[in-house]
Structures are given as structure tokens and as C-alpha cells.
Write a structure and sequence with these properties.
single chain; 7-stranded mixed β-sheet; alpha/beta; globular
């Protein structure tokens, strides 16, 4: 019985590996039929549509001045543009954002400050409140506080909408202000580049279900309204609205040539906090929209791939389950219809996807492809740290399944684009216990089921690394706090 359960977890992870390989193939095919990007000018888009730019803030003191300045510099007719600073802050960000808004408004920028008395609905609530104040807006662009939108981005997005009247969203590519800051940022550069060069390209070009990434995208206002508006009952309001819109028949698109730079977390624990929120939010969206998605008139291939998309963090949960079953499996002699050894070839897929991300995006960054591939040195660290998040993701899954999600927690930002920082961490008892468990299971497997041992020692290393780095960051934060107090 244990052998069959173990096999199911392994096969489940393998399905997601095959899904990734399929997306890589679709992304490669899409590059061979790339459309020529269009441009919008005053004649092709007369009169200019009314555009609302929303910048949601929550305690973003270190980056608020930068993002407001970038928004005020957007190249778009002032009489057809409104910029909203949606501030839910509870610290000194509020007075600073209000003063900055007043300064830019006095200089002629079409900018308004909106402050809510409570954070109901979190980011979704702020976006909905701002939208209600701008009923004439036809298009809505959204930038998180750590983004720096280039001046021409609104016109470039509108070009895509003019090409496809039924389009509900155009998502842009995320670039990185501090991609070389440290190994944590470099590892995330590989991860996000893979996503934006493979996942989003494949889904958009092939007509599959895709999602708004929460920032650096433009919505058609009619699409937001038709899909039911922003709703704050999940931690992934962007994924939620995206799927409600597509279930209602709207199409979403991704344009890789339209990019906006943003800041990456340079602390492993800040990255862990971000990934927890994204994982729990995606599980909440599946709990909310799984049944409507399966009932939708979308065709079964799109629905199945959509389910795999929403459940993209599920392999972490399956990993923890397979680890839990490995020890009794080894103790009982190791019988299982399928072992990891038979599927080890799938381990090369994430590496190829990461390499393709660097190869494909190199020309857009003005660098040689071989230089871009030099970033692959950090891939082993990305693998270890991402596997080490499996317990955190499993906790997120359990919370979403039980209907007990955490409150929305922002990802800390520095604002200078280079300096490392850390956040206070919770206890690492789960990761520590799994590291010990995996090491013992690996030792037992060496004696009874040798083919199981390598992956178990990999798990032990991943969880152990998460504990060590987390405690080191917490110690560093404590020293910094004491130094500032002194």
C-alpha cells in the first residue's frame, strides 16, 4: 500500500514536469511566429482612450518616491490620464506619499492621492476603491510600488489592444533593477526569466489560460467589470480575476517586448514570505474557481492545462508527501511500481527551461547569449532553495484547504536596488524536522533501496540549507537592529 501511495506522489510530480516540458516546446514554436509589435500614435488611436494608472501602496517608504516619479513621467496626453496613489499605509509612508503627490500635482501631473481608513480586501480592495472613483477610465494599468515603468509603456500596451478588440488584458515582462545584487537575486532572475520566457509566452501564443502577474499590466475596464471586479477573498487577486475573466470568454495576452523593471527580494526569507503568499493564494483560487473552470465552455485541453497552471505549487506538497512515505518504504524493503530513478530524466527539464529563459531574453537586454547563459552558475542554488520551500508551501496548502488563509503580507523592499536586507523569520521547526527525517531515510535507503538515497539526501540538503540561511539572516537582522538602536 505504501509503495502505491509513494508511486502516486512521484507520478504526480512527473505530470508537472511533463507540463513544463510541453510549455517549453510551445514557447520554442511561438518564437518562430512572433508578431511584429505595433505602435499607437495620435491618428490610429484618436481620440486617446482614458487611462487610469493605479499604484497600490502599503508601508513602502523606501520605494514610494521612485515609483511616483516614474508614474508622473509617463508619456501620455495629460487630459486623458489619471494616476492614483492608493495608499493603505500605517507608517510614515502615508505623509510622504501625500506630500509627493501634491508636489507632482502642482507641477502639472494628473495625479491623485487616495487613502483608505482600513485595509479591507487588501490590495484587491484598494484597486476596487480606486476604480470606483474613476468611472470614465477605459483602460487600467497597474504597477506595484517596487516597479519603475518606462515612459512609453502605456502607448505600447494600447497598441496590442487596438490589434485585438476582444482582448481583456495585456501583461508585460518583468525586468530586474537589482538582478545581480547577490545570489538570492540572481537565482530569482533565473526563475522569473524562465517564467516570462517560457510559461507566459507558451500560454499566450497558444491560446491557453494565463494570468495577470499583479503588476506591469493593463486591463480593459469592461473586462474587469464583466468578470465581477476585484475581489479580496484570496491572496492572489490577480490570478482570481484572470481566471474569472477567461471563464467569461475574455482573452488575455502577454507581450514579452514590453517590459518594466522592478526590485527583487535580496533576502531568502523575504523571498520565502513572497512565495508563501503566492502559493496560498493560488490554492485559494483553485478552491474558489476549480469547479467553475471545469464547467466552463473552454475545451478540455485548455481546462486541464489551466488546472495544472493554478496548482503550480502542488509539486511542493507532493514532495513532502513522498518524503514522508520514503522512510517506511525503505524500512519495508522498498517495493514501489515506480521509483524516482525511472523518472530522473525529468530533472533536466527545469535546467533546460532556465537556460532557454536566458538564451531567449538576451537580445532584449542587449547582451550576448553566451554571457546570459553565464548566469546558470546559480541554478544549483535556485534548485536547493526552491525545494527548501516545500514545507512552507505545504503549510500554505493546508491553510487554503481549511479556509484559513493568512493576512496579506507585503514583500519587504529596499529601494536602492542593490543592498541586501532581511526580515524577521518564524521558527524553522518544520524544515529542521524534515531535514533530519530525510537524512535518516537516506541513510536507511543506502542499505536497502539505494536508488532512493540520492533524492532523499537532496531533500535533506535543501531543508537544512533553508534552516541555516534563515537563522543566519535572523541573526544578521538582530545585529542590525541593535546597531541602529545604539
Amino acid at each position: 500500500m505504501i509503495g502505491w501511495l509513494y508511486t502516486l506522489t512521484v507520478l504526480g510530480i512527473a505530470v508537472f514536469g511533463l507540463h513544463m516540458a510541453l510549455l517549453l516546446l510551445l514557447a520554442w514554436l511561438a518564437r518562430r511566429r512572433r508578431p511584429v509589435p505595433a505602435r499607437v500614435d495620435g491618428t490610429s488611436c484618436a481620440p486617446w482612450p482614458r487611462v487610469l494608472v493605479q499604484i497600490p501602496l502599503y508601508n513602502e517608504r523606501t520605494v514610494v518616491e521612485r515609483v511616483i516619479a516614474a508614474a508622473a513621467a509617463l508619456d501620455y496626453p495629460r487630459e486623458r490620464l489619471l494616476i492614483q496613489i492608493l495608499d493603505d499605509s500605517t507608517d510614515e509612508t502615508g505623509p510622504l506619499a501625500r506630500a509627493l503627490t501634491s508636489r507632482w500635482a502642482a507641477a502639472g501631473a494628473p495625479i491623485a492621492y487616495v487613502h483608505r481608513r482600513d485595509r479591507s480586501g487588501f490590495k484587491a480592495g484598494a484597486l476596487a476603491a480606486g476604480l470606483a472613483l474613476a468611472r470614465e477610465a477605459e483602460y487600467v494599468a497597474i504597477f506595484d510600488a517596487d516597479f519603475v515603468p518606462p515612459p512609453d509603456i502605456l502607448k505600447r500596451w494600447l497598441a496590442a489592444f487596438m490589434e485585438q478588440p476582444q482582448l481583456g488584458l495585456v501583461q508585460g515582462r518583468w525586468e530586474h533593477l537589482n538582478g545581480a545584487a547577490n545570489w538570492v537575486a540572481q537565482a530569482q532572475t533565473l526563475m522569473f526569466d524562465s517564467y516570462f520566457a517560457v510559461d507566459q509566452v507558451a500560454r499566450s501564443a497558444s491560446g491557453l489560460l494565463m494570468n495577470f502577474n499583479g503588476s506591469a499590466g493593463m486591463w480593459r475596464r469592461a473586462c474587469i467589470d464583466d468578470a465581477g471586479g476585484w475581489q479580496g477573498d484570496t491572496l492572489a487577486e490577480d490570478l482570481d480575476l484572470s481566471y474569472r475573466a477567461q471563464i467569461n470568454g475574455w482573452r488575455l495576452a502577454y507581450r514579452a517586448e514590453i517590459s518594466a523593471p522592478a526590485e527583487l527580494p535580496t533576502s531568502l526569507m523575504a523571498f520565502r514570505q513572497q512565495q508563501f503568499r503566492w502559493a496560498q493564494g493560488s490554492f485559494q483560487v483553485f478552491r474558489k474557481l476549480g469547479a467553475p473552470l471545469l464547467r466552463a465552455r473552454l475545451g478540455w485541453p485548455r481546462k486541464v492545462l489551466g488546472v495544472l497552471h493554478i496548482l503550480g505549487y502542488l509539486p511542493h506538497v507532493l514532495l513532502v508527501l513522498s518524503l514522508g512515505l520514503s522512510l517506511p518504504l525503505a524500512a519495508l524493503g522498498g517495493f514501489a511500481p515506480v521509483h524516482w530513478g525511472a523518472l530522473s530524466w525529468l530533472a533536466v527539464v527545469p535546467f533546460v527551461v532556465a537556460a532557454w529563459g536566458q538564451w531567449a531574453l538576451a537580445p532584449a537586454r542587449g547582451e550576448t547569449r553566451w554571457r546570459a547563459l553565464g548566469r546558470m552558475w546559480v541554478f544549483p542554488f535556485l534548485t536547493l532553495t526552491f525545494l527548501g520551500l516545500a514545507w512552507s508551501t505545504t503549510v500554505a496548502f493546508i491553510g487554503a484547504l481549511a479556509g484559513r488563509g493568512r493576512a496579506f503580507e507585503r514583500t519587504p523592499k529596499r529601494g536602492d536596488g542593490t543592498a541586501a536586507y532581511s526580515v524577521r523569520t518564524d521558527r524553522f521547526l518544520g524544515e529542521f524536522a524534515l531535514a533530519i527525517y530525510a537524512a535518516f531515510a537516506g541513510w536507511l535507503a543506502l542499505q536497502r533501496v539505494p536508488e532512493l538515497a540520492p533524492v532523499l539526501f537532496l531533500y535533506a540538503t535543501s531543508f537544512g540549507l533553508t534552516v541555516v540561511l534563515g537563522l543566519l539572516e535572523q541573526r544578521g537582522t538582530g545585529r542590525q537592529s541593535r546597531a541602529e538602536s545604539a
